[in-house]
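Recall the central idea of this unit: under ordinary conditions, the amino acid sequence of a chain determines the structure it adopts. In this exercise we apply that idea directly, starting from the sequence alone.
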Amino acid sequence: NHDWRTRLARGMDAASHQTGVELAAFVFMPEHVHLLVLPTWPDASSISVYLARVKQSFSREIKVILDRTNTPLRHRLTVRERPDKTCFRFWQEGGGYDRNLFTPRAIRASLDYLHANPVRRGLCRRAVDWRWSSARYYENEPTGVQEPELPRIDGLPGDALVENAPEYEDTGQASGTHQDEPASPVPPRRPGFHSCVCSAAQALKTTFVHWSFLSRKVL
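Accordingly, the structure predicted from this sequence is:
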């Protein structure tokens, strides 16, 4: 849904501005969002606050749209929390899947994996052909072109992919326990990157495989 994805992009821009979390890369898939972000503020809660603001503001917007149109999707996204209470839930419950990235190798692997998502799913032949990702920002010439419908991409620091550069540190902001490799014995120097996956519409879930893929298109 073109309008929904554009709304999500604007919500991500606002959340980045409010929390100091920079967007390095992203992909919007039919049922989940995958982000590579870099916190720039020392507040250890900035990642969780960023994700909460993105997800909550977007969910409220979509609820208003679906309430107005009263489509069947509105009812499928209504879940029963207890016998006497129901609620609208666009995003799958929980914080999603996330991991800390400290090294150039891990950052590059995450970037490549993220951009290849639509190709692996058969949605396009090349990563740059998928409209809703940062692949063209990195791969087209000239690089670094911002597209108005997409979230603002801050890119990577100049030495993020340089071997032997100072390592990024574990800021403890990931909600999970995943990390790319054991911590270095040398004291880290910079906040680390975080790879986040948020899945949509728990009410539509029929399969749950590692990256929280869902079986029906929502976004």
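The longest strand covers residues 21-28.
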